[in-house]
Amino acid sequence: MSHAPIEITNFFLAMQAGPPGLDMLREMFTTDATYSEPFSGSADPHVGRDAIVAAFDTSRTDAFDDSVIHLSGVEVAGERITVKWTCYSKAIPGGQGSGTNVFEMRDGKIASLTTTLDMAD
CA of 94: how far to CAs of 10, 14, 91, in Å? Predict the structure, then answer.
């Protein structure tokens, strides 16, 4: 396991910050970044900072204000950083959910983010 680069640590801190973290998140992505996620039900990625921040904003509710994200594994391979995480929140069925984020970095910013969820058997 590697240590998470500061950009990735800051990403997860901004995610835990809820709505106040949206401006921080906006600055973490390249202007042409993409974000693929399972939460919206769409197979198409969000493209560009504004679309990505809107996706984060739409997925957040006041119920997530208690969220805490624990990182359980970080692998760094050049500009690709893979992070396993668990999110604890009363807004999540069962109180927790887990998954993996794969970040592709460019010039210190996130150029691509793909989030997948761990699914129970």
Answer: 26, 23, 9
CB contact set of 51 (below 8 Å; sequence gap of 6+): 35
The residue with tokens 């399972």 is: 38
Statement: residue 59 has pLDDT above 50: yes
State the DSSP H helix or E strand holding residue 27, giving kind and residue range, or none if neither: helix 22-28
Which pTM was predicted? 0.90
Domains along the chain?
6-115 (3.10.450.50)
Q: For residue 13, what are the CA distances in angstroms to 10, 18, 31?
A: 5, 9, 21
